Amino acid sequence: MSGQREPIRDVAHLAHVELLTPKPEESLVFFRDLLGMDEVSRDGQSVFLRAWGDQQLYSLKLTESAQPGLGHAALRAYSAEALDRRAADLTNGGFGTGWSEGDYGHGRTFHFRGPDGHPMEIFYEAERYAAPSHLKPALKNQPQKTAAHGASVTALDHINLFSSNVDSESAFLQERLGFRLSEVAVTDEGKQTTAWLHVTNKSYDLAVSLDKTGAKGRFHHLAYKVDSPEMILRAADIFIDNGIFIEAAPAKHVAGQTLFVYVYEPGGNRIEVCAGGFLILSPDWETIVWTQEERKRGLAWTNPLPATFHTYGTPDIK
Amino acid sequence: MSGQREPIRDVAHLAHVELLTPKPEESLVFFRDLLGMDEVSRDGQSVFLRAWGDQQLYSLKLTESAQPGLGHAALRAYSAEALDRRAADLTNGGFGTGWSEGDYGHGRTFHFRGPDGHPMEIFYEAERYAAPSHLKPALKNQPQKTAAHGASVTALDHINLFSSNVDSESAFLQERLGFRLSEVAVTDEGKQTTAWLHVTNKSYDLAVSLDKTGAKGRFHHLAYKVDSPEMILRAADIFIDNGIFIEAAPAKHVAGQTLFVYVYEPGGNRIEVCAGGFLILSPDWETIVWTQEERKRGLAWTNPLPATFHTYGTPDIK
Amino acid sequence: MSGQREPIRDVAHLAHVELLTPKPEESLVFFRDLLGMDEVSRDGQSVFLRAWGDQQLYSLKLTESAQPGLGHAALRAYSAEALDRRAADLTNGGFGTGWSEGDYGHGRTFHFRGPDGHPMEIFYEAERYAAPSHLKPALKNQPQKTAAHGASVTALDHINLFSSNVDSESAFLQERLGFRLSEVAVTDEGKQTTAWLHVTNKSYDLAVSLDKTGAKGRFHHLAYKVDSPEMILRAADIFIDNGIFIEAAPAKHVAGQTLFVYVYEPGGNRIEVCAGGFLILSPDWETIVWTQEERKRGLAWTNPLPATFHTYGTPDIK
Amino acid sequence: MSGQREPIRDVAHLAHVELLTPKPEESLVFFRDLLGMDEVSRDGQSVFLRAWGDQQLYSLKLTESAQPGLGHAALRAYSAEALDRRAADLTNGGFGTGWSEGDYGHGRTFHFRGPDGHPMEIFYEAERYAAPSHLKPALKNQPQKTAAHGASVTALDHINLFSSNVDSESAFLQERLGFRLSEVAVTDEGKQTTAWLHVTNKSYDLAVSLDKTGAKGRFHHLAYKVDSPEMILRAADIFIDNGIFIEAAPAKHVAGQTLFVYVYEPGGNRIEVCAGGFLILSPDWETIVWTQEERKRGLAWTNPLPATFHTYGTPDIK
């Protein structure tokens, strides 16, 4: 963080993610009834959804498509000036794919692709959410009523990009967008296999995992957070009662120390419900480097992640 | 427990409660959408409801009436023989009001009234709940899917009878029904002001509180349990978001050490959502006696219960 | 429960367990500092320990021995008469090994061995725990201060006996001691592989698991409960920080639906920390029978138990 | 946030607080044994303590003094340049009281006083904590072992300054230090009565409350966070068992929606244990303004805070 150059601090947070699904109705039921999100709008083949605590208008755009996967990931800039600075820098780096007028709920938007081709965008101007009367909360510092259905996810937490080259992705995110590398797993040769990066005080807002199949630009997972470890366990109960495939039962990650449960939503995309973890407040946080040897312990409580975690992504390439 | 006489062990548990409400539609919304219960049947002005973990067919019969209050409280006997023994004993004591063929979901039933006139009944034969297909749980040792809406109450926990004479009520319940007195609050003169009694290993299944207005036979509250202290806090969040009056915010009782939140359902009846507390396993548990002096500390964490807790009951007599 | 014969209801609860350990000092540190128990007495090579919520004087007798394993498991009878009835019945069945004057904290005791040879005992007269001044709790309905160290286990929950013949063990416990079979796992041939049995309203107080090695009379595990699912996760954090081997990371059982974490204490005995689960209140609970096919789903959230769960017991026979 | 001027983003977080206590031994027992903190160093009449998750070397300097109160509050700058910018700006505003070489664990430090005279300081260079071997955690992204004693507080969360003039204090913190006003309570005349301000994504790092006694420069409270709502309840259990005065039992704040329990440590200072609350990620968060009318609802669950919350501070002026 401290160095010759002032750090880039232009990205405020992960704003929303567009997910593609070949089973739009069933995916909608998953996000709305099982995660407990609310529909805010529809447009063509897309439904816009929000979690009760999302500070943005929506955090998920669910779009019908032949294959599951990532439509795009959107970042919010700190200011109009910050947006312009990032657009210029991304253009200079050859990552930009141009400006648009924006989409539902946000203004002019700069589009770009990371090294592996993941479609991303950044904008600043955004419409605020105003809860309809039946969702007005008791406390006005909360965007809407606490969801009292399904897993009651609070808010979008992070996204994980499956990449053929984590080193490139990680460098790109740090250099062009100001992400800081909180933790990283490396091979004995020093090649990154998972990179956890943050722009907020959360220990990560975006992660990049090595796609062991060698495929490029796939989507690994999207995570919604809940308010306590116990709600992860409850989410898992809801998933089994409703026939959702659990890829990884509730446990605790080493990196970030978040509690999790991983499932595949009916469209095939991997979804995480997460909780806990720590905030990074120190301005001179030193990246935690996990060696292959250290990773052999498994998850925090020493149980393993399933092998599919390193090979399954969307679109599925089998 | 150990004495000359073998203890009476004929009552298995509190089976269900009939609540009267002048606002049947709003009360139904409260129990179904805010507590998260399911409707199992209707009959005339009554709706039968169950919590997802109730082992009986239903735990609540909600009946339209001019005034709120207790319709009746039903106990389940351990066996047909136990039922007959209790009926004979209640009849001998002059408490019996006769047999009936039963009601929805249960067979022949003996009706009686306690010293203050609270209507009660006891039966053994009961119809088992069979979840409809959309509520079939993943695990068959659970009656139905975990409720994923509202406060997700698990099961009926206990009932509290408001009484003009706690000593009489407490003696009646012990002598005629085999309840054991786990804890009791007494005045300096030794008069009981609250009695907590149990037939299961829970520290209480039924409580009796002194009605300081002197009225007879009123209803104090009904309690549904949730699976963790945290779910009490969440229930309170749901109540404020939906305009439910909270009489006593989440805190911890001294007796039983249960966590609670008390509200008035729209029909006016006081409802508790509770969690935690201890089991009584010792066969020679000695009744815990709380003096007036000791009760001055307030609740477990030293905050007070509101004054209405000792005067408000249903029907309301103001 | 309902049948021609009145059920036996003479056993109140599991009173304590004697564990043998070849590493007495390290085992003591485990129970005292990591589980958060307190030492109440010492006698020769034994240390007596209690959890803060145990209603009995102690729940664990930890005894130095060449091999780890079960010293004995002790049950408490409901009354002196109940004790005599059980002693007579056990003697008739050929299981009795005689009376003794008792041990630290309890009076005359009848000793017996189950079909596989596990040493057990039953008594009624027991000394009550009186907390020393530094452990006096704020609320006198609690035996001592809430443990504020280690995993803060509340109380002894259950024991699991490893057996070469679960059918025999299960029949013995039901017929001679009045345990009821809440759930059972069976092979396609109808042979029991795990039996869960209860005498309290807890869904099990004692379990018997098939020892796939064919060894007789070994010990499977002892379980202490904590007050919430979250405290299981916290226990696992404490275990990894202190070098305790986690055999099965926190997850949820199908039978009883308890949350758990399994570890090996330094002496080699398997210890569970558990939470949650349901109470059985229905007098006509029908035993839940799990087929081999149904058991293939794994644990509640579909993750597996490690294979050692079916082969490792103490003493270790490798 | 969005305006003509680029916002000041020079303060990284609240680094530590020096508390004065007339009962140093009892205060030390409170923080070490009841909150679960660890001593890292001593110097003269001061003891330096840290919570297990504090990223800084220590978060509390406990210093013997005739009267309780605030020794000083320390902020950490983002960089050496940021420190110099703030020092210059504070000097320009007439708030500076000069540079020092620093104190235990941190380098050169700029000292200043807010409008009401509260002693504060800011520094950048800081020594990192290295856990001694008996406190080495299993996971190296955690500073030390999870505390398994007392309330197990995770980290310093925020400080609340009692002020005779909240408007001045709030303006000072925003203009000179770059705090942003997340929420504010105002009188009908528009005078601020409580201001909640943040520099991190937490909804507040520092609050200012109106001292209704009119006294200047007193200390309101210091807050340590725990990892879940449930741990607040557990902290309260520990406090009652150990004779600590609970001023406000566990409940939920409206502002920030944090769960809390407030106690007076033996030296007289008000201490909060808090959990939960939301993060502010939106770069254009609009300050939530609470009117007197809105504040009449009480806390989130409608129960009141005790009157002493608005008059008791340290040093006590009675």
TrEMBL record, chains A, B, C, D:
Keywords: Dioxygenase, Oxidoreductase
Pfam family, one: Glyoxalase
Domain of life: Bacteria
Entry annotated with the keyword Protein transport: no
GO MF annotations, alphabetized: dioxygenase activity
InterPro entries (UniProt xref): Fosfomycin_Res_Enzymes, Glyas_Bleomycin-R_OHBP_Dase, Glyas_Fos-R_dOase_dom, VOC_core
VOC domain boundaries: 13-125, 155-276
Protein name in UniProt: Catechol 2,3-dioxygenase
Source species of the chain: Cohnella candidum
